[in-house]
C-alpha cells in the first residue's frame, strides 16, 4: 500500500506521470477518473482533488517530497565537513544549496533541524556577492 495516489484518464497525459513514477521507483496507487460523473475510481469527487478537473493529479506528493528532501538534508548534514560542499572553495553547488535551503519555511521544512546546514547557510549569506545577489532580487 502506498499513500500516494495518481489520478488518471487512461491514455491521457497522465500516462507520462504513470510512466515517470514507475521509472523513478516511486510507489503509488492509481485511481481512474470518470469524466462523465466527475468521480474517481476511489469514490472521491475529483474536484476536491483538483478543482480544475484535470489529470494528472497526484495526492500526497508534497508530504512525500518533504520527507524525501528531509532525507537528503540528513545526508548533506552528515557529510558536510568543510566550509563548502565540495571542499574549501565556493562552487555553483553552494549557490544552489544556499538557494534551496532558503525555501525551508515556505515548504514547511524547518532547517533548524540540521544545525550544521543552518550555520553553513548563515556563513554563505555573508559572502559579498551573495549579499549583492539577494539585494538585487529584493
Ligand atoms: N495544464 C494541465 C493540463 C492537463 C490536461 O489537459 N489534462 C487533460 C488530459 S491530457 C484532462 O484532464 N482533461 C480532462 C477534461 O478536459 O475534462 C497539466 O499539464 O496538468
What's this entry about, in short?
45% of the residues lie in helices and 11% in strands.
What does this structure look like?
The protein is an alpha+beta fold and 138 residues long. The protein has 2 domains: 5-59, Glutaredoxin (3-Layer(aba) Sandwich), CATH 3.40.30; 63-136, Glutathione S-transferase Yfyf (Class Pi), Chain A, domain 2, CATH 1.20.1050.10. Helices cover 45% and strands 11% of the residues. The chain is built from 6 helices and 4 strands; from the N terminus they run βαββαβαααα. It has helices spanning 14-23, 46-49, 61-79, 92-101, 115-124, 128-136; strands at residues 5-8, 29-34, 39-40, 57-59. It has a 4-stranded mixed sheet with strand order 3-2-1-4. Helix 4 packs across helix 5 (115-124). The model has no long low-confidence stretch (mean pLDDT 91). The structure holds glutathione. Glutathione binds at residues 9, 12-13, 35, 53-55.
